[in-house]
Description:
The chain is an all-alpha fold. It is built from 14 helices and no strands.
Amino acid sequence: xxxxxxxxxxxxxxxxxxxxxxxxxxxxxxxxxxxxxxxxxxxxxxxxxxxxxxxxxxxxxxxxxxxxxxxxxxxxxxxxxxxxxxxxxxxxxxxxxxxxxxxxxxxxxxxxxxxxxxxxxxxxxxxxxxxxxxxxxxxxxxxxxxxxxxxxxxxxxxxxxxxxxxxxxxxxxxxxxxxxxxxxxxxxxxxxxxxxxxxxxxxxxxxxxxxxxxxxxxxxxxxxxxxxxxxxxxxxxxxxxxxxxxxxxxxxxxxxxxxxxxxxxxxxxxxxxxxxxxxxxxxxxxxxxxxxxxxxxxxxxxxxxxxxxxxxxxxxxxxxxxxxxxxxxxxxxxxxxxxxxxxxxxxxxxxxxxxxxxxxxxxxxxxxxxx
Length: 371
């Protein structure tokens, strides 16, 4: 019981810490006040839990924000704060579901207030004004742009793709017992081929997405110019579909259509569901980021073959790869909240399994050719 409370109090402390940091970062005064109030509420929850723990262990002290929480805030400065908003939304969802289950288990009827924090977070994430972009990597995988920290997730997965694919390739060639020079050449070729392929795919995806959105916006602008009343009526229907009554939807649509710019912005957001920030993204920046991240992971299994050979190079290659896999697995815990050791070792297991399979296949092919 106490251990569960200690885990819960750490969650409350971290959540309050996130809300407080986000309140200081957001540009919108209303949103900032919402975050401050949510932080205060989570602080009070933590104090209530501390009182329960003190009834069992009076010497227990309120824990500070966890190392994971501090790392997430620091990473947010580089990759953007989307993944923290997503994490908070997931946390509030878990807390709401746990509260509802707890009430149902004791025969108490939920009052509907259990999901208040979740609803607030869902509304905030629709219109947050945090400094999302912090570097070139924040535009990586722009085609998947949504609340959820895709910049950081894309960085982790991009490096993982490069590491696992090139480690498997290098081990497969090493298993065939070819020369050190051949292994090195194959590893470098795999790195370049994979990184170029990833970069090209990223460029095409982002550029196509931008062009499609621009075309859709141009068509809507033309329709608004030729039949503005029809477009306004469509906006009214969209507002009603979101829960507004007819009078409020009518009033808001008339307000929006007072000038062409706000009208077009509303149509882009409500009808096309397009985030205008995505249109400012650069396909070239996304491609470069994709290339660099894939190459960063792919170079690790190749490095030892640049300065040594034979079994020593193979063992060092595996060692470098294991370290890289563990770091990548540990990084994933920023999203999952799982144990660093569990996620890191799991990633190592999967990576080494893939390398072992390709090494065995290479060994069989090498023996077959030699025979």
